[in-house]
Amino acid sequence: MQFKNIPGNQKIKEKLIKSVEEERIAHAQLFIGTEGSAGLPLAFAYAQFVNCLDASKDDSCGKCSSCIKYEQLVHPDLHLSFPVKGAQALSEDYMAEFRKEFLANPFLNVSDWMSALGNENSKPNITAMECRNLINKLGLKPYESKVKVLVVWMPEYLGKEGNILLKLIEEPLGNALIIMVGESEDRLLGTILSRTQLTRIPLFNSAEIG
């Protein structure tokens, strides 16, 4: 995902790009925007820009080996976490399905995601087992890139299990960037809110989607 492929949000794009240029990337960030906003696409565009091998002043190149893998969400140093169904479920068990749904619709919502899994009437969650798995993954050295990236979509579904991640959020292992993408500050653990740099993502206006 490149910034140029996301409508609007120019000020936010400039802020994210500037943080990279000035080497002032906050290691734990939270993007909050209501359903239909560009939080998740922006997170992936930002991660791609951070690890691009030939970035311009305002976007990733979209052509280097890193970008090609990021475009398909298959980069080995990109880790994803998202709501699934089941007390023992892990995101990695549904990675192929998530890639398919996101690439088809970058503005994916939880309802559509659960429907894609055939669990539209089930309550999604991000489990304690998932949190521990993420800690283990970020403890590994990067395979190819300078920065490991963890994107957590809809951290509202962490519940109290999110406290397992607090030390990781405060002190990411190695050179890691954690980007959480949610819709509601009110549904997030206060301990997570206080430990992340918040960026609010607005809804598109008519000119941006026209």
Provide keyphrases for this structure.
210 residues, alpha/beta, 5-stranded parallel sheet, 9 helices, 5 strands
Give the SSE string: HEHHEHHHEHEHEH
Strand content: 5-15%
Give the rounded overall mean pLDDT. Answer: 91
Query: Uncertain runs with pLDDT below 50, 5 residues or more?
Result: none
- The helix/strand class is alpha/beta
What's the alpha carbon Rg, rounded to whole Å? 16 Å
Structure overview:
By secondary structure, the chain is α/β, with parallel strands linked by helices. It has nine helices and five strands, in the order αβααβαααβαβαβα. The protein has helices at 10-21, 39-51, 65-71, 95-104, 110-116, 128-138, 166-170, 190-193, 206-209; strands spanning 28-32, 78-81, 148-153, 176-182, 197-200. Strands 2-3-4-1-5 form a five-stranded parallel β-sheet, sandwiched between helices. Helix 7 (166-170) links the parallel strand 3 and strand 4 (176-182). Helix 2 runs antiparallel to helix 3. The longest helix has 13 residues, at 39-51. The radius of gyration is 16 Å and the shape is globular. The mean pLDDT is 91.
